[in-house]
Predict the structure.
Amino acid sequence: MWGSIIYFVAVSLPEQFLMALFTWLILGKHKTAKFYNVVAVGISAAALFRISQVVISALFGATNQAVLQGMLTTVVQVCGFLALVLLIYRVNITESIIGSLVMIVVFTVAQGTTINTLFLFFGWSREEFVSNQYLTIACAFVYFIVMVLICYFVYEFNLNIKYLKNKSKDKPYTSRVKFLILQLSFSYVNLLIIYYLFFNNISVFETFANKILIIFCFLINIIFTVILVKSVFKMGEIIQKEEELKRKYDGREFIQNIDYMKTLIDEKQYDEIKKFLNSMKDDIDNKIVSEMDKEKD
């Protein structure tokens, strides 16, 4: 009983709070949403995580399917966290999904790399980690320090995905967002499987050469994650540049149309003016109709 309470207070609560804080920062909510929202998300997520652990363990009974239980608990945790972000931070569904996915990818890499690296250097096994609560808390403490530094970096350099707040119906924008969600989801599943494999079989890699290979694998995962997360933040700049180019193009086209009409007026070609205006009206009507169709879809 006391062991569960200590674990909840020393590990679950700080971890979920840091997750809530990181998501709060990358959504750009630190300038609009109150800090108590972070506390509310953190406590609620920690409680949900603990309840899911108890329920899933009870469903599996005395079976030794620890990996499957852990993965199911993680899935419940991610879905629950996404819902909490959506409701408490008051963001749209796209912000909630991408914000939660970025958070979980970063935290998975930080947690998996930190804990597995400690296992390699100190020769600990999964069984020791699970059975020794002090060891679990010590590893979690190192992992929390890493995440505090990452949160500070995000805050200091004002990294955010606020561009998702302004939803666009443009097909290129929608395609990019869908691809981003797919990319983050596959990356998360891939990282989760890799780190679970290392975590449950860390004692197999006893030779120096194997340890070097594992560390090299962790470095590749870190580099890949940095590039992936950077692409998420950069997408806002790309969309902004495309919108600026579109406005410039529309402005030039508008000026060209005015010049063309002035020429027709000077030449008194009123029939051509009428045809040109009708053509512009048809273009506007078609665009309005197509936009309405998109909204219905």
